[in-house]
Write a structure and sequence with these properties.
10 helices; binds pyridoxal-5'-phosphate; alpha/beta; eight-stranded parallel beta sheet
């Protein structure tokens, strides 16, 4: 099942788009099934779960932190995390920089941009992101690298709304790239909207339930 789902998604997306298998709440065996089908990049949204899975699973897996990250938990993932998707404040970036330095690493990060109508979604707005990137604090951070942007569209059936939000993120991405920030990664699209996201310029999709099935929250 997992293998078939994974391969059918992989075969349907263009080669410049990276697939993150979002394994949150799924057991290690499910991850191993995907691993055996060739998947090496997995995303989790809770620090504890990410650390547990990192310790128990093959070491050639790339682990992405895709959820909201609290500053006081950065230290637990700093030794191994490959990409942090949800960076939503300069303060968090400072903490990541500090922990990366302690681990002798440079950690790749995506800035999360607020594109949805919902108030609850985290992220910078356009003005804040430009300010952050131009700030003196940011320029002093030598152990982080901003490689792109991440966003989540409104949870709605209204395709035109979703498309509009993805378009706005892509526009900001192009604008910042033109400013010489050298962004390579635009993380947008999940199970329900990754096809739209790819049409609108996504280079990285975060897909969970379409690979692993519906999650059981208890
Ligand atoms: C859970 C999650 C996803 C994947 O959601 P699905 O609908 O299961 O594909 C993608 N991005 C983030 C930030 C998530 O928390």
């Amino acid at each position: 099942m997992i293998k078939d789902n994974l391969l059918s998604i992989k075969n349907s997306i263009p080669p410049h788009v990276t697939l993150i298998a979002v394994s949150k709440t799924n057991p290690t065996q499910a991850i191993l099934d995907a691993y055996e089908a060739g998947q090496r990049i997995f995303g989790e949204n809770k620090v504890q779960e990410l650390v547990d899975k990192y310790e128990r699973l093959p070491k050639d897996i790339e682990w992405h932190m895709i959820g909201h990250l609290q500053s006081n938990k950065v230290k637990y993932i700093a030794p191994f995390v490959k990409l942090i998707h949800g960076v939503d404040s300069l303060r968090l970036l400072q903490e990541i920089n500090k922990r990366a330095e302690q681990n002798n690493r440079i950690i790749d990060c995506l800035l999360q941009i607020h594109i949805a109508k919902e108030e609850t979604k985290f992220g910078f707005d356009e003005k804040e992101v430009v300010e952050a990137l131009q700030s003196e604090e940011f320029k002093k951070m030598n152990n982080i690298k901003i490689v792109g942007l991440m966003g989540m569209a409104t949870n709605t059936d209204d395709e035109s709304q979703i498309r509009k939000e993805f378009k706005s993120l892509k526009q900001l991405f192009d604008k910042l790239s033109a400013f010489n920030f050298q962004l390579s990664t635009l993380s947008m699209g999940m199970s329900s909207d990754y096809k739209l996201a790819i049409e609108e310029g996504s280079t990285m999709i975060r897909v969970g339930s379409s690979i692993f099935g519906q999650r059981n929250y208890h």
